[in-house]
Here is the input.
Amino acid sequence: MTAPLILIVEDEAKLARVLEEYLQQSGFRTEHLARGDLVIPHVRKEPPDLILLDLMLPGRDGMEVCRELRQFSSIPIIMVTARIDEIDRLLGLEIGADDYVCKPYSPREVVARVKAVLRRLDPRLSDQSQQPIIKVDMVSFEAHIGGRKIDLTPVELRLLNTFVEYPGQVFSRGQLMDKLYLDNRVVTDRTVDSHVKNLRRKLIEHLPEQELIRSVYGVGYKLEL
Ligand code: CA
Here is the structure.
């Protein structure tokens, strides 16, 4: 298996060089671009396995680049930013980054983040034949985790089904409401929260090691497999 290729988009040459060194030492292949406007054409030609994308770039803003990448690609993107106030937006549906690293960072931390994101996404990218941990059958209205049946209410089942269909995607409470209540009944954010809480509790009983449903602060929830 070839080593994963990490594209570093960073206009500060020194930072880029340090990152390249650390990533290479950890067994990754790297490539580097110093301008935002070069990213899309480059990725279309030769898609990397992950992109480390600086926010402030000459040529084109990292946020804009990320948004456009998401229109045609699900390549994992880690945003590198000094602007903590932008994090919720970066990870939200609008921009769609997978994770972020705050400047100033330690290169070691960046490497750990890269590994974590790849590990998180790898089962579903690299081994499609693998039995999914969670199976939801909306005909028999049953869900199984690792082969064992899990008892869920109809609302919890629909909730789980929504997450399983789009792993990694962040859903706002409003979007979840639309999926959960087909009769357009009006429910509050707190109702959604309590269903998520109950579902989470039941999942943790079956998979104590994993926190499958994660809250994304200020945005909503997502499933991580
Ligand atoms: Ca920069």
